[in-house]
């Protein structure tokens, strides 16, 4: 059964107000921490349907497999370079990527010398396993790794999907070594694009349950016990093929589908070239020293 989320799922405040409707969904905003969230969370059955075997079809992978893989590795590598300054150097650094999908972050991390593991409950995890990566098919809440296992935990486009982000980050906290780093990427509902595009903002998706602003992200990290190292704009390398695939899948309709057909007909040298866009927010938290 769908549950109305009266209290703020980030800070627990009961002081909340209507945010308005976006696409099909009514949203609520917390007056305390500024998080915005679905007034009624989807049922487990609805979520299972969303995360079915065709969930990653919108990535438009087959159309441009090689450039897609390179685009994802480039993004993952840039995230690892970004967090590197907060991590003391030592050999055999360990990394867990939560929601690792096909294993792009695991590949990028391995190239930089990390011993990397992934967590993925969807069938996409099988592709990462076929590539030779260690991927566990459990939820974070099952705490599938011993305490203090990792120097870095990455969660790229994951936290906005979770109904209980505080519990999820507490699990991450437990799995981090002292002074370990958690690195998050998530849409920023306080961003200029979110405010100006309103319902046309591409991050309004059925599986996105909670939207963060820098203020609410700060609250979340702080409540978990993490030191907030950095919260700021995030950049991604995206190809035209990928953008059009996403638009076509999330908006539907004649024009996006037409664009997709056109994009697939264009030379891959053009549609597969990654360009850098400001898209989301990054957040870096650090576990306290012993
Ligand atoms: Zn709140």
Task: Name a few traits of the molecule.
single chain; 290 residues; alpha/beta; Rossmann fold; 7-stranded mixed β-sheet; 4-stranded antiparallel β-sheet; binds zinc ion
Q: Can you put this structure into words, describing what you see?
A:
With 290 residues, this protein is α/β, with parallel strands linked by helices. The chain contains 10 helices and 13 strands. It has a 7-stranded mixed beta sheet. It has a 4-stranded antiparallel beta sheet with strand order 2-3-4-11, with no helix packed on it. Strands 1-5 form a two-stranded antiparallel sheet. Helix 4 links the parallel strand 7 and strand 8. Helix 2 crosses helix 3, helix 5 crosses helix 7 and helix 8 runs antiparallel to helix 9. The longest helix has 20 residues. The model has no long low-confidence stretch (mean pLDDT 87). The site of zinc ion has 8 residues, from loops.
């Amino acid at each position: 059964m769908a549950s109305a989320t009266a209290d703020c799922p980030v800070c627990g405040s009961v002081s909340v107000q209507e945010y308005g409707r976006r696409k099909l969904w009514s949203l609520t905003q917390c007056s305390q921490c500024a998080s915005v969230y679905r007034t009624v969370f989807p049922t487990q059955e609805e979520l299972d349907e969303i995360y079915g075997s065709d969930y990653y079809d919108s990535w438009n992978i087959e159309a441009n497999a090689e450039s897609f893989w390179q685009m994802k590795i480039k993004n993952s590598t840039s995230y690892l370079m970004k967090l590197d300054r907060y991590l003391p150097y030592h050999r055999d650094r360990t990394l867990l990527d939560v929601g690792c999908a096909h294993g792009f972050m695991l590949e990028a991390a391995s190239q930089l010398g990390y011993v990397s593991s992934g967590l993925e409950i969807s069938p996409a995890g099988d592709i990462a396993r076929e590539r030779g990566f260690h991927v566990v098919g459990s939820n974070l809440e099952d705490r599938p790794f011993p305490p203090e296992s990792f120097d870095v935990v990455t969660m790229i486009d994951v936290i906005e999907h979770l109904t209980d982000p505080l519990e999820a980050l507490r699990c991450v906290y437990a799995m981090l070594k002292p002074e370990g780093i958690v690195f998050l990427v998530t849409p920023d509902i306080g961003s200029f694009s979110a405010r100006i595009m309103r319902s046309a903002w591409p991050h309004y998706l059925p599986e996105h349950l909670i939207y963060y602003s820098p203020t609410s992200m700060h609250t979340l990290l702080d409540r978990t016990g993490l030191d907030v190292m950095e919260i700021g704009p995030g950049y991604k390398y995206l190809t035209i093929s990928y953008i059009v695939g996403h638009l076509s899948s999330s908006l539907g309709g004649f024009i996006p589908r037409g664009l997709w057909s056109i994009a697939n007909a264009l030379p891959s040298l053009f549609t597969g070239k990654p360009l850098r866009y400001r898209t989301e927010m990054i957040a870096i938290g650090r576990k306290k020293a012993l």
